[in-house]
Write a structure and sequence with these properties.
The complex is a heterodimer. By secondary structure, chain A is mainly beta. Helices cover about 0% and strands about 50% of the residues of chain A. Classes of the chains: A mainly beta, B mainly beta.
Chain lengths: ~110, ~110
């Protein structure tokens, strides 16, 4: 059973471009979480999704950031008009249910904005 | 609202010494508690979890944690630390119908030779 997959692993964008980060959860998992980790900082929750639904987006910046988890295909975290402050590692995790289950983390996407 | 506090930002121990990483949580019902480890440049890996039952939980890599409801704590321990244990450790709390899990800010462990 393949683990959580994230791609790309590394992404470089110029200021003002769009970044699209993809996450394929483990087989059978319908819950996806996105986290951001800034350099020298801890993990910060961004958004929690189930298939076709956003359950909790309390950690998402109000502008430029959006996430989806369609019925088919991976979950996408989209950052429009990136700025240098968006440079970070973005981790996706999946679980078979709510937060009573442990989360399985992907290897992360390291976004660098130049 | 649920929250997790890891009071120690950095801890340094000598190889072979014992280790205890602290975690305090706030949660309105029976918590589900987790410890994860993150090596540099990697994602997080689950070390152990507590759902119910025996309050002393055994995990991978020789780690254990003890749930103490009266102290709202779930401290991680290891009797003898190895150099390969150097990493960042995260405590997390969740539960049924809680939505997201909440993570602490992490504790960075350095192991001296």
């Amino acid at each position: 059973n393949a683990g959580v997959m994230q791609n790309p692993r590394h992404l470089v964008r110029r200021r003002g471009q769009e970044a699209r980060l993809r996450c394929s959860p483990m087989k059978g998992h319908s819950h996806v979480y996105w986290y951001r980790q800034l350099p020298e900082e801890g993990l910060k929750f961004m958004v929690y999704l189930q298939k076709e639904n956003i359950i909790d987006e309390s950690g998402m910046p109000k502008e430029r950031f959006s996430a989806e988890f369609p019925k088919e295909g991976p979950s996408i975290l989209r950052i429009q008009q990136v700025v240098r402050g968006d440079s970070a590692a973005y981790f996706c995790a999946s679980s078979p249910g709510d937060s009573s289950y442990e989360q399985y983390f992907g290897p992360g996407t390291r976004l660098t904005v130049t | 609202a649920q929250s997790v506090t890891q009071p120690d930002i950095h801890i340094t121990v000598s190889e072979g010494a014992s280790l205890e990483l602290r975690c305090n949580y706030s949660y309105g019902a029976t918590p589900y508690l987790f410890w994860y480890v993150q090596s540099p440049g990697q994602g997080l890996q689950l070390l152990l979890k507590y759902f119910s039952g025996d309050t002393l939980v055994q995990g991978i890599k020789g780690f254990e944690a003890e749930f103490k409801r009266s102290q709202s704590s779930f401290n991680l321990r290891k009797p003898s630390v190895h150099w390969s244990d150097a990493a960042e450790y995260f405590c997390a709390v969740g539960g049924t119908n809680a939505g997201k899990s909440t993570f602490g800010d992490g504790t960075t462990l350095t192991v001296k030779p």
